[in-house]
Amino acid sequence: MRMRLFAGFVLLALSGCATFKELEPVPPLLPSERGFIEIKNVQDDFLLQKDGKYFMKFPRPEDLHYYILLETRTKKQVGSYFTATFNDGQPPIVPIPDQGPGLDSLSIFPADSTHPTYFWVIDRVPADVPLTLRYRYVPQWRYTVETKYDEYRRTLSENMVDRTPYQSMGPGYDFSSLNVDAALLDLRARNGRIAAMNEALLNLADVFPPNIATSKDTMYARYRALSADTKDELAFQAVYDAVLTVLQHERQTEGSFSAFVDRAAEFGKFLGSKDQYRKPIVDYLNSLFVKRLEEAAPIYDGQIAKWYSLSTLKLVPSPVAVLGLYRSCGADVPDNLSNELTYAEEFNTSVAGLQSADKKYAAARSALDAKKPWPDNSYYRGLLATLAEAHKDIPTNELEKIQTPQAYGLTDLVSRELRSITKRIADLTAQYAQARDLVDKINEHRTMDDYRGIVQLLRDNRDLSFVVAEYPDIDELMLKSEVAQIRASLDAGQWRETENGLANLQSDRDFLNPSQIASKKNENVKSLEGDLFDRVKKATTERAEAFAAKNAMTLGNIPALYADSAFLPVYVLTFSSESQARLLQKRRMMDDYLNQLKYVRFPESAIRPLYRELTRAPEEHGVEEGKAILAHARFYTGTDKTIRSMIDECNPATAKQLVKPKDYRRIIVLPVNDAPKSSNEYMFRINVRIPSDARFPVYDIDIKVPKEVAEKSATAQWFSGMTLNKKAIKTEGHMRITAPSADNEYEAQITPVQVEKDKDNIIEVTFKYSGYKVLEFSAMAQEPLIRKN
Question: 399-437 burial string, b = 16+ CB within 10 Å, else e?
Fold first, then answer.
């Protein structure tokens, strides 16, 4: 069922597309070249029905470049087109244009053998009409000659030029009587019409069959005859036009030699083709041109005489054109004109040389303003080479040797400029030679970083200001070099050399521009001076601090430590860029620091560990440590209470305070003598100053004596002296001194001891002991006996 439906659809579609009916002539159409042939449907004409659509096939022509001609009275009644492709009216439709659109009954369609078939399509029939139709296949060239020959022949005949005037131009002919403008106007109008026709004839040659030249075709013979006649007429007209044009252009330049010379190339070209023209005409024009050329000499003479500038002299009109026309005329150039042109050429040669020399001189001289920084050894040698080239460009003055109609001012002008440029180049060469030698020396010093030497060279050659300007940073470089040397001394700890360098730099006036560099120089001096002070202070500090740390526990010869140079500056400053007062201030800062270290911090740093060791193990080096503390104490100027207390504890001459009853107080006792002896002397003091309500306090003073000292009291008194406020204390009257013994645990007692209230009450005890060591005593005051009266 589906197959039957599909087949029905295809048939409907096909029947709907078949809208054009083919007209098939009988007999069939023939593509051979003949006259017009009627197209019939057997013996009858085809009948075109209203609103019908038709097409007719035409076989392709036998060759290229054909026309298919269709002649019918129905051309204007129906709508039709001619095409090489037809698909039942379906696009694309590409109609072939009708070459005869204005013709009533004839249509002309170009065709060739490249398409197999052509189609004449009738797509509009407004009413029933019989089709009366004839066709013809004809080569395009033939059809054109057939239809245009009479027209072309008539055009040629009507536009030929009368040759009589040209032929009459001979000896004695009055050329001035000839109306050149009118003759040219007429000639060119005729020539334009013939030329257009000739172009159409030439175009036909493109569509001729290859073998047409060997044929005896009558129409082709007529074409050739027409072409030959046309060519002959155009050739004559061209010759006549050239003659008239030259005559016209020469007349147009009368009164203007420049306009005449502007035409020189044209006139010369005419004379160069003289064989194409009649000799009398050429001779006339040749003599006319030579006569006109005589105007050149006085014109050029005036221009040279008025010219007064060292720039290129451009003669007007162009001498090249003048000389060229002389050559074309075969005439000799007059001597006066030749000399003028030689002078102008020589002048321009001199100007070119002077300009080249001046340009190179200017290029070399620009270095005076360029200020090239730090030129190398080749710089001025290059400039000298440029000046040498400039000198080579200087021309010799040959103008004086040329004979001219008058003496031109340009001769003296060139002479003066020659002298000027020669002197300028010589002067600059001398300067640059001096600059070259100076730069060589500067660069030699530069390799050694000897900027002071460079500055001296520049100072000695200030006349070469342009060279001096090429070293704008020389003072800074010299300053930098000097600063670097001073800093090297500073870094090496060479203090004196550093100070000498600073002093020399501050007073140094040997810079290229001392006033300009002064500010920066002073900044560097101050900076280095500050660094020197800091370095000296640092070195001094480090040395003194290290010495103090190293000798904090030294036990012997303590005074020698304080006399050591470590407590002096590593260097005593002698220079100040500001003032002597500022120098003394810096010295005092250094001295104050050293004094603080020497008399305060150093003894404190020694006394603390010495005392600590003394109290920790007095039996080891107690005497030495105690005496070292006392030696430091002689130099100590500090106010630290702890340090002062330690010193007091070790000092036999300092009374040990008893400020509270019933509390034992330890007393460190050192030998009084400095070196051990068989019997060493000891002393200690006690200050009894205990607050009390009694007006006359009385105490029992208990003293614990070391066993080794107390043991001798069995046979002798253990002390050698005992005083209270420098009054001897003895066992007499009511005063008793109890000897220390094992029974009382080696405790001696002094009783009763009456003291003065609120005053120092010094008990001094001296004794001797064979040992040389630190001894420890203890002392205590019993509760006071209060006496009202």
Answer: beebebbeebebbebbeebbeebeebbeebbebbeebbe
Q: What is d(CA 565, CA 435) in angstroms, rounded to the nearest whole number? A: 58
Please name the residues in contact with 378: beta carbons below 8 A apart, sequence gap of 6 or more. none
Q: CA-CA distance, 77 to 125, in Å (whole number)?
A: 8
Residue 475, judged by CB atoms within 10 A of its CB (0-12, 13-18, 19+), counts as buried
pLDDT value, residue 713: 64
How far apart are the C-alpha atoms of 653 and 669, rounded to whole Å?
10
Strand order across the beta sheet in which 747-754 lies: 665-669, 775-781, 698-704, 747-754, 736-738
Rounded to whole angstroms, the Cα distance separating 493 from 571 reads: 10
Residue 701 parent element (H or E): strand 698-704
CA-derived radius of gyration, the chain: 71
Block means of pLDDT (10 residues each) for the chain, 789 residues, are 34 48 95 91 94 96 92 93 93 92 91 95 95 93 85 92 90 88 94 93 82 79 89 94 94 94 94 92 93 95 92 94 95 93 94 95 90 92 95 90 84 92 95 95 94 94 92 93 94 94 92 93 93 94 95 94 94 92 93 95 96 93 95 95 95 93 93 93 94 87 93 82 93 89 92 90 94 95 66
Q: Tokens standing for 392?
A: 């080579």
| Backbone dihedral angles phi then psi of residue 524, each to the nearest 5 degrees | -65, -40
Long-range contacts of 371-375 (CB under 8 A, 24+ apart): 371/466, 371/469, 371/470, 371/472, 372/470, 373/470, 373/471, 373/472, 373/473, 374/446, 374/470, 374/471, 375/439, 375/470
CB 86 within 8 A of CB 121: yes
- What is the Cα–Cα distance from 296 to 194, expressed in whole angstroms? 42
For residues 199, 201, 206, 210, the Cα torsion angle rounded to the nearest 10 degrees is: -150
Q: What is the pLDDT of residue 13?
A: 33
Residue 512 DSSP class: S
What dihedral angle (degrees, nearest 10) is formed by the CA atoms of 203, 205, 206, 211?
170
For the beta carbon of residue 33, count every other beta carbon within 10 angstroms.
14
The pLDDT value recorded for residue 786 is 55
| Contact present, 169 and 175 (Cβ < 8 Å) | yes
Distance CA 707, CA 64 (A): 161
Distance CA 753, CA 781 (A): 10
Which residue, among 740, 758, 759, 760, has the nearest Cα to 750 in the 3D structure?
A: 740
**What is the SS3 assignment for 122?**
strand
120: part of which helix (H) or strand (E)? Answer: strand 117-124
- What pLDDT, on the 0 to 100 scale, is given for residue 758? 87
What is the Cβ-side half-sphere exposure of residue 511, based on CA atoms within 13 angstroms?
26
Q: For residue 714, what is the DSSP state?
A: G
Q: Are 350 and 289 in contact (CB under 8 A)?
A: no
Walk across the sheet containing 762-769 and list its strands.
656-658, 680-688, 762-769, 721-724, 727-728
- Cα-flanking dihedrals φ and ψ of residue 321, to 5°? -65, -40
Would you say 438 and 374 are in contact if contact means Cβ atoms under 8 Å apart?
no
d(CA 583, CA 563) in angstroms, rounded, equals: 25
Give residue 149's pLDDT. 86
d(CA 439, CA 471): 11
Task: Assign 3-class secondary structure to 84-96.
Answer: CCCCCCCCCCCEC
> Closest Cα partner for 490 from 541, 525, 456, 457?
525
Global confidence as pTM? 0.55
Nearest CA-CA partner of 502 in 518, 473, 522, 519: 522
pLDDT of residue 400: 84
